[in-house]
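Section 4.2 – Deliverable D4.2 (structural model, holo form)

The reporting period included a commitment to supply a predicted holo structure for the target in complex with flavin-adenine dinucleotide. Inputs used:
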Amino acid sequence: MTEKYAVVVVGGGAAGLSAALVLGRARQRTLVVDAGEPRNAPAAHMQGFLTRDGMPPAELLAVGREEIARYGVELVRDRVVEVERGEYAAVEPGKDATVEPGEDAAVERGEDFTVVLAGGRTVRARRLVVATGLKDELPAVPGLAGRFGRDVLHCPFCHGWEVRDQPFGVLGTSPKSVHQALMVSQWSKDVRFFLHTVAEEELSDEDLRRLAAAGVDVVPGEVTGLLVEDDRLTGVRLADGTTHARSVLFVAPHAVPRTGLLERLGAELHETPFGAYPVVDPTGLTTVPGVWAAGNAIGFAEQVVHAASGGYRAASAIVGDLLMTDLDAAAGL
Ligand SMILES: Cc1cc2nc3c(=O)[nH]c(=O)nc-3n(C[C@H](O)[C@H](O)[C@H](O)COP(=O)(O)OP(=O)(O)OC[C@H]3O[C@@H](n4cnc5c(N)ncnc54)[C@H](O)[C@@H]3O)c2cc1C
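Output (structure tokens):
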């Protein structure tokens, strides 16, 4: 018989674990399925999460996994490969949420979901939390990807303090990179904006005036390689052979939202400058009844503290939704 859960959480990063903690404490039978590839895995430290500032990302997740286990939440290392909607049996309050459709159920209504795992297991759930994060695709400069999260960085709020006042480079990959070059000038007054794949004509007069006001040097030419000594970035090389001493390079990864499962469920997406993300209400409810999303699955800019908060919001909404569904069924409403 297919195992049934009140909620399956897809993804066990900050968003998924936070949702699971709240669901477990609300006595919902919950399964977290986590493929184990959190976005910030390349970074040694996680910054900006009050009381956890500087904690290694893996440690945060290990503590989170311990916390959810206290409340009977199950976690498996696996990948959800398919999700399908079906009918479910709402149960009477106080009864086991694992009742079969039609079997000892007060009323059958609403949705349920069949969740297929890569490892071959299939489970059912009354509600879903999609907390699958996103994938960063890095510019194709040789050696760059291997340094991501160390001295090739994307987020000054995550790493800016640690590299403050050092010589920064910013790799231009679109006119939006101007914003990054301006932002990082808050952390160092020695910033060179390498235009790389951005044509000079793509920069507006306002861009150039703001860059000048921030003291950012604009350097035309493609970056073809990184200079590294003793496993530390020391500079960049341009196509014309010139080199620039830099100890930090900011880049803008191309964010690839992990929306495949949501799209297959029919969730509506909306375009953002960082890709298409699900349309959600303030609790993270998508346009598919019964399916919530949280963390980087709903937007590029969700930091760890936002992801944890989004997981909490989704979970508390789900607890209310399940309870009211069952009460309405029992009350014949
Ligand atoms: C280099 C770097 C450094 C960063 N530093 C900071 C920082 O200092 N402070 C900060 O606040 N933020 C930082 N961030 C941002 C941070 O990584 C995200 O805010 C955070 O990871 C979002 O949490 P999440 O739970 O939404 O997603 P994730 O942490 O990415 O977790 C998603 C999980 O879902 C799993 N998953 C995906 N698809 C499936 C599936 N189909 N089935 C099962 N599991 C699946 C993934 O394997 C992963 O384990 C950094 C990001 C990067 C890239």
